[in-house]
Amino acid sequence: MVPAQAVAAPPTPGPAEVVPGKGTSTPSLVGGIREDAGAAGSAADAATRHLAEKKSRYRIDRPDRDLAPIRAVTSGTGETVRLQQKHRGVDVLGGQYVVRMEKKNGKRVVTGTSGKYFTALTTPTTPDISEELAVERAVDATLAQLDRDGFAVDTGDEGDAPPLSGTARGLVVLPKGPGVLTHHVTVRGTDPATRQPVLREVYIDAQAGYPVLQYSGIKTFGTAGGGSSASGTKAAASGARSLADGSAVKGSGVKFDGTTVELDLTHDASNNQYVMRDAARMRDGSKASISTWDARKKSVDEVSKQWPADVLEFRSANPAFDKEATEAGAVDAHWAAGKVYDYYKSVHGRDSLDGRGMAIDSMVGVTLYGTPYVNAFWDGAKMVYGGGDAEYRPFSASLDVVGHEMTHGVVENSADLVYAGQSGALNEAIADYFGNAIDTDAHGIAMDSPESGLLGEGLCRTKSPRACATRDMNDGRTTSKGFLGVDFATDNGGVHLNSTIFSGALWDIRKDLNRTLADRIVYRALTEYMTPLDGFTEGRNAVIAAAKDLKVSAKDLNAVTRAFNGHGIVPDWELAIGVDTDRLLGRLNTVDSRVGAGGGWWVASKSNESGSEPYSIWAGRADGTGEKQLISPNDGRYHANPVTDGKTVVWVAYGRGGYDLLSRPLAGGPVKTLTHSRYGFHQQAKVDGDVVVFVQLFRRGVSQLGYLRKGDKEPTWVDDGVGRRDAIGQHSLKGGKIAYGTRVYKGHGKYEYSTKVLDLASGKTTVMPQLGTPLGVGQTAITSRYVFWTVDEVADQGQRAVRRANLDGTNVMDISKEQGADALYPEGLTASEDAVTVSSRTPGTPGPRSNETLPKLWQFSADGSRRARMSCNRGEQGLPAALSGTQVVWTDSTTGYADLVTRNRPAGNCG
User: Fold this and answer.
1) Is 753 within 8 Å of 779 (Cβ atoms)?
2) 50, 183, 348, 496: the active-site residue
3) Is it true that the peptide bond before 15 is cis, omega within 30 degrees of 0?
4) Annotated catalytic residue: which of 136, 327, 405, 428?
5) Per-residue pLDDT tens for 417-456?
6) How many helices and strands, by DSSP H and E, does the chain display?
7) Is 748 an annotated catalytic residue?
8) 92 and 203 in contact (C-beta within 8 Å)?
9) 402: which residues sit within 8 A by CB, 6+ positions away?
10) What is the pTM for the complete model shown?
11) Can you tell me the distance from the alpha carbon of 400 to that of 391, in angstroms, rounded to the nearest whole number?
12) Is residue 567 flagged as an active site residue?
C-alpha cells in the first residue's frame, strides 16, 4: 500500500487507505472504511449513490450516467457490485469500478472500493469510418499477423470460403490519454498456413481505420497448438434433449493413470445407456449439469466456432466405462470437472464457473484435422481438450490442466482480466494457481516439495515430470530477473511467459499460510478487487487488501507482503530494468509498424506518451547527434512502416479513404503521394536513390511487387502474371537491383519457391540456385556484392538456413545451416556491406519459459566466419534495420515498452 492520505469525511474507525490511480483522479483502491450507504434500493443503487456522495474522493461526475451495473454478488452479509464505465454512452475498455458493502440488520455500509475509472477521457464518440470498413481492416490486420514467410496470406481461390471473418462488436473507447474511439471486431476462422483456429480481438481506430490494438482471445494451457473462445450453444446438440427424464446413478471408470474412480452419471432408460452427465452434483434447484462430450471425430476449428449438432455425450452400455473412454480422456475429464466444481463450491461457495449454476461442458479427444491436437483451452462456454499424441496424453488426463481451464471461466465471470500484457499474465497466473492448488491437495503433495509448483507435469508418456511440465511456480522468477518485455504479437504480450512471476508470489503465500486461507485470500482478491486491466502492482494491492479484509494475523500479512517483495512486485518495478543498448527514441507506443535505416539515419513511427494520437514519422541521425525531425503531416491519418536511404523517407499513411504510399526528402520539402491502394501495402517499401519498391495488396490474397522510378506516374509490376495463390514479396533494394522471393501455386496445396534478383538497368532477372528443394523462402537482403535470404528445405520445427550468393547467382553457400545445434529460426534479416543481421529465436532453446524463446538478433560477417549476438537484452528484439558497418537499429521491448535502440557492434555470445 502507498501511505494513507486524507479524504473528505473521515471514516469510522479510522482514516481511509487510499491508493491513487495512474492517469486518473479516481483512486485505484480505497480501504479501511465503514461508510453508511443507506438501506434503500438495490445494491447497485447503493453503490452508485455512495460514489456520487463522495465525489470529492472519487472524482466521478455522474455515476448514475457514466457507470452501468454489470453484476452484484452477495456472499453472506457481503455485497460486491461491479460497474462498467461509459464515456458518452460508449463502453470504456477495462473501465470497471467495484464497490464492496456489508448489509446487516437492514443497514448497508461501504467497506471499500477499487478499480479503474478514467477521468481524462474527452474523445468524441461519433465514428468517421463504418463498421463494414472496420471489419475489413480487422480481417486484413489479422492476416498480416499470420504472415510468417513474408508473403501475403493465401485466402484461397474465387468461390472458396474465406479463412477468416469478422464480427463487429460495437464502439469501444480505449483509455489512452483523452481516449481512442474504436470499432471492436472479433475475427474468427482458420490460419491458412497452419490450419490452427484463429480468434483475434481487434480494435480499429474509428477515425482513420488503423488497428491500434489486437490480441488473441485463445486461452490455451500453453504447450502447443491453439484454441478459441467462441462460445457456441448446446441447444442444437442431438444428445442435449434426449435425457430430460433420465435418473442419476453412480458409475465408474479408469483414469489414464490406472486409478479407478467413481463417476456421477445419468441413466437413459429409453435405450438403457449410461451417459457422462452429472445432474445431481449441482444442488440448490439448478437444472444444469456437468457433461463430457465425445469430440474425437471433430477438428479443433469445428468445436471452437460452434457446437456441432452430431456431438454426443460419452455413453456406455453399463455404468463401468471401458478402456475406450479412458484413452479418449473422457473419464479424467468427467471426474476432474466434478472435483473442480466441488472445490469452488465447498471452499468459496461458488455455484459453478459463473457463480450462478451454469452448465459445465467438456469436449474431449479433439484433433487438428485428424492429426494430434496437443493443447487445451476454455472457449467462453466449455472446456476443449486435445487427444494428445505419441508423447502427450489426452490433455484432460491432468487435474491441474482441468482446474486451470475451468478457472479461466471463473476469471472471465468475475474480474474478466483482459488476456493481453500484464493483465493477461495475471489471468494465467490465477488459472495456474487454482488449477495447481486443486491438484496438489487432491494428491496430497506437500507444499514444500520442489515438485509442488509444476503445471502439466503428468501429461507426458515418457518424460520425467519436471521435463514434461509446461510451467513451474517455484521457478524463482522475479520482475528484475525474469520479466520479458514482448509485443502483443508474441504470446499476447507475455501472458504465459510472465505468469510465473505473479503465480510464484501467490504460491509462496500458499506455502507460508494455511492452504485454505491462502486460497480464500486469492479468490477474494480476484472476485472483489481486481478489474480487467489490472497489472502486477494492482494485483499485489488487491491480494494484500483481501488479506486485510479476512483479518489475517500480522505474521500472515507480513508473509503476503514478503512474497510479492521477493518476486520484485513493488511499485514502479518497471523502472529498474536495465539494457545494454543506446536508446534513440523511447516509448514508440505503436502497433504493427517497423523501423527503417540508411545513409546514417533512422526513421520510425511514434505516437504520443499516452499512445492516444495517430502515429507520426520521425527521423534522426544514427549517431544520436542533432535534433529529431518530424517528417509526416499531422493530418489525422496513421503514418507507419517508414524506410530511408539517408536522403528520402518513404512510408504508408492509413486513412478512411485507403492507403497512400508517401515520400519526403530528409532535407525538407513537400510530401509526395507515390501511389494509392484500396487494400494496403504488404511489408515495408524500400527506397534507394530514385527507386521505390513496394508490394501492393488486392482482394482475395493477391499481392504484386511493383516499383517506381523518378518521374514515373504509374508503377511497373514485376512478374505481372501472378495468379490468385501466387505471391511475390520479401523484397530488398540496392543499386538499382531488386531481390525478392516468389511463391507459385502448383496445385493440390503445393507451392514452388524461388529467390530472384531483377536488374532494373538491363531488365534481366536472375534466379538464385538453391541447395535443395525449398519448402519456403523468407526475407531477402541485397548489397553491392551479395544477396542473402532465408530458406526452409527440411520439414522440421521452423529452423531455416541463412543463404548467400553473388548477384549473378554464383558461389551459393549457407552462412548459417538449417540443421544442427546452431540452427536459427529466422523471422527477418537485414544487411550492410560488412554484415548480415538475423532476427531469430536462439538455437538450442532450453524450454518454453526462457527469454531465449524470444526473437534475438544474431549478426554474421558476410562470409559467415564471424557470428555473435547483437545485444544481450532479455526482452523481444524486433526486426532490425542495418546501417553501415556493424551498426543496427531495432525496436526492443525489454523495458516493457517498445523503444528504438541501436548498437554499433555485437555484444558477444551473452553466455
Assistant:
1) no
2) 496
3) no
4) 405
5) 999 999 999 999 999 999 999 999 999 999 999 999 999 9
6) 16, 53
7) no
8) no
9) 332, 333, 336, 337, 339, 340, 362, 383, 396, 435
10) 0.92
11) 18
12) no
